[in-house]
């Protein structure tokens, strides 16, 4: 199958925020948000233990209002709560307690809460339970006395106004009676009409005087009901404090707050850092397919079947890399990013698997740790420092081990091998640095055979295989050999991965790395 030199389709638009990658990255940082959740739990419990609430007493007062209505929205009881926080009531309570404390300071030690339209709860703190109970009782008595006094004053003012109006009506009635007495019976029709109007006026005044008397009596009658109804319905008592309950409540609140904070920090850090964790993202940023995955070595004890599964995966990866090194005509290097110890151990295992076919030397270009000091070094494998790579005999098979972490001397990578396998820890390098690695390897003409992903997400189901090799860095021994032999300029069908054919287009002058404004030549 051959292809013509048509323009490749433009790459698909990258979403601004990949929720799948975000969820995976946050889940991988579970140590962070779980630690913050546990920290919040401990802090909440510690606050309950180290900062217990002060001794508190509570009292409930039934407040009867003259204008009580069934559909009241709580305006009257809110007014009572506001009146409770005045210096007049606080000062009266302190006088009954014979306390020299300032009313403004005392107001900070209590608060009122309207439970219903007529029920007021007062909470008061003190140095001990006895003082708190005494303060609560004095404050409730002061509030009831002030409320009763205000209701009496209101009723007295209303009754006085009604009686004053009645007295004015009586004075007018006296004048009407006097006018009626001064008239003599006459036969004149106009005089008769005038007398009739005076009699009607007198009747109206008598009716209104009686009405004012009744309203004044009702005003006086309503006051005893208010006085008798406004009372303390729940005597002052100390509030019992349960330390286990408080610790559990505060701990639960701290746990939730810490968990939310941890998730937010993990999500924001993931978005800002832009560290790919999915196979497809790492493959796309490096321009090379993921050929194998390797679980990270855990220092904690694991189950036997997990250790066996990890060991089998490591053995399969070692055999795969040994076949790649055996079939290569030039040295192969393992370049690490975030997993130097794992890469060194993997190189030693591959070298040990090749010792039966001849001498093998591992060229150590790692900054640390030194492979010469490794306890797992096979007997027939020699470890040579990177600066002494030229001293290795040509008959000895070489396997280079190096790093592509920040600070790498890119021009020294040729001493480690003409081809490379990238061993990358998931979530370690940023997308920008993975682009840099792919661009620098392309500049150095070092083809990438594949990527070994260390510590992958176990729930990752994305595909880490690239099928658009024309727009990425060189991959594979066969591509590099074809280009070296001059056959890469023709339309050739190459086999990759699982044996599927891949059509290679003629090389272009420059390869642009995705999401990069620089060219790798």
Q: If you had to describe this structure to a student in words, what would you say it looks like?
A:
With 521 residues, the chain is an alpha/beta fold. The chain has three domains: 30-51 and 244-270, no CATH class; 56-238, no CATH class; 276-520, Rossmann fold (3-Layer(aba) Sandwich), CATH 3.40.50. The protein contains 13 helices and 15 strands. The chain has helices at residues 19-28, 30-50, 75-84, 87-97, 103-107, 129-182, 189-229, 243-273, 279-286, 304-326, 340-354, 431-443, 477-484, and strands at residues 56-62, 110-114, 119-125, 231-238, 290-294, 332-337, 360-364, 381-385, 397-403, 419-425, 448-454, 492-496, 500-504, 511-512, 519-520. Strands 5-11-10-6-9-7-8 form a seven-stranded parallel beta sheet, with helices on both faces. It has a four-stranded antiparallel beta sheet with strand order 2-3-1-4. Strands 12-13 form a two-stranded antiparallel sheet. Strand 14 and strand 15 form a beta hairpin. It starts with 18 loop residues before the first helix and ends with a strand. Mean pLDDT is 79; it is low at 1-5, 469-483 and 485-521.
